[in-house]
Amino acid sequence: MAAVQLPPAPAPAPLALFLPFIAEYPTTLIMKEQVFSLSSDAFTVKTLNGRDVLKITADTFSISARKRP
Asked: How is the chain split into domains, by residue range?
């Protein structure tokens, strides 16, 4: 029985870099869940000095549990 030659593995997807999210030095991030959220899936990500990096909110009554940045 002859050996079968497999095709090469696909290349990985390109990485996207967004300049506003690149820190020039090590930075501590604080992730805090919003306790009084109806969906219980909302949270914020901030730096130590209080600058907002990311806010995630969830639909209150969503079948797919969709999240929005």
From this structure: 26-68
